[in-house]
Amino acid sequence: MTTPLTDEDRAARLSALTALLDLMRPSVQADGGDLVLIRADVEAGVVEVQLQGACSSCAISSSTLQGGVERILRGRLDWITEVIGSVDETMDLETSSSMGSGGYVPRYRDL
Question: pTM for the whole thing?
Answer without folding.
Answer: 0.78
